[in-house]
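Database export, one record per block. Field names are fixed; values are copied verbatim from the stored entry.
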Amino acid sequence: MKPLKPIPDWEEHEKPTLPGSASMPWHPPYRRAAYAAVAVLVAITGGLGNALISANLPWITGQMGLQASEANWLVAAYLMVNVSANLLVFKFRQEYGIRLFAEIGLGTYAALAVLHLFVGNTTTTLLVRAGSGFAGAACTTLGTLYMLQALPRKYVGNLLVIGVGLSQLAVPLAWLLSPSLLDHGEWQNLYLFEAGLALCSFAAVVVLKLPPGIQIKVFERKDFLTFALLAPGLALLVVVLSQGYLHWWFDSPWLGWALATAVVLITAGLCIEHQRRSPLLQVRWLMGPVMLRFIVGAFLIRFLTNEQSYGMITMMRTLGMGPDQMAPLFGVILIGVLVGIAAGALTFGPKALIPQLLTSIILLGTAAFLDQHRTSLDRPMDFALSQFFAAVGSGMFMGPLMLMGIRQAMARGLDHIVSFIVILSLTQSFGSLAGSALLSSYQLHREHIYSTALVSQLNPADPQVARRLQLQQQAYARVITDPVQLKAQASAALAATAKREANVRAFNDVFALSGWVAICFLSWLLLEVTLRNPRVKQVIRRDRAGTQNQRAQT
């Protein structure tokens, strides 16, 4: 691979690890601190805008006059572009440099956010979310590369763990900032803050440049053909998963057509990659047993984080809690994520990767089982202990997961790094999205079952039911004078209470399901680790040899 630019006369410790990465020259302490600050700013910018929209989605839905399914397109638009952009970001940075990609992404994102402040309609809202997804594809990598400049090269593993974990701070920060941003009820504050953050990141990247790296020619024409097939296929898959439980999976024929089209496009793209000499994705390697186990494991551990991102948040919203009430809890979650990242970085080492993953699964499973007996009287801070455990687990697993994958890819060659980066991004995006879709569908199913059971017990002849109806009538007697309307309103209020209790029971089932998935995942991982132990392998070989000898003698 011939470099596109002359290679500087670096010393051995200054050379970049890979083409497309920055070199690591000596920096004075003040510049290292500046690199660390820019890393935090850029990494948070990549996800904070989307996190602000997700945290305030019910409020934005009402302000814009949207249906729930229409508002969900705001979140889907981010992921549709983000998963597609990740297909090319690694090769782009190898040939053109990550700084150019970041400047394009952040510049576009900032321009769209400013435009939305003046126009403020649904179309520009979707464009801002798409621009945020495009910028987010670069910001996660850019934040990691900036963080690697913060300390000497011997700390590169610890800094890598911190760099990949920084983006997880976006969600708790969004919930903490939302009450002050919406203090006066103006949606413009969200986008003004978002535009300002993008402009600050753009300025920081331009002013404090990364050290130069090695740029090589990597793009081929068939890369764009593969992208033209996989990008819309993945985008359609995002649409199906984000809209399926809202329109219900079997009630909307267009969901089936979208899924079928996605399967055809993705299959066609993978078939082309399978036949290429220099593919964008190493399909044969990805379909091997080692990588298939890695893909399943990466997907499942991201799935477990939905106990917090979907289960706890949605339950609190169902009980009427908003950002104002949930901000203290997310302060605890922010501390938990920081503890998880710090623990992963401080205990970094080849022997610590599996224990860190096991600890993350145990913490996520423990959080789920702690939450499986919630009631409608619970409030956000009642979740503090369980969600702190979940946050520590979420902050800890990403570093070892990436390092394990990079080690597998590097053993195969530089061309496999692209495949690993893409597949890691896809497992995390679709693990979160598919997890929310599955858990929300399961919750809705269980809620219908519980609602039917509870409503069937609301017999007006029952003394307890009659007493509750009487109390409801007394509550509305001051504003409703018609006896018929008063009775109907009391019955409706009692039915709403039954529905609320059914929802709480259904969320308890969701938490229990997450906990059992964690137990199954933990058991599988422990079995994998045990079978890979050299001593265990030796015993298994002896048993097999003994069995074969007995058969031969027989």
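Remark 1: The chain has a mean pLDDT of 80.
Remark 2: The CA atoms of residues 362 and 518 lie 7 Å apart.
End of record.
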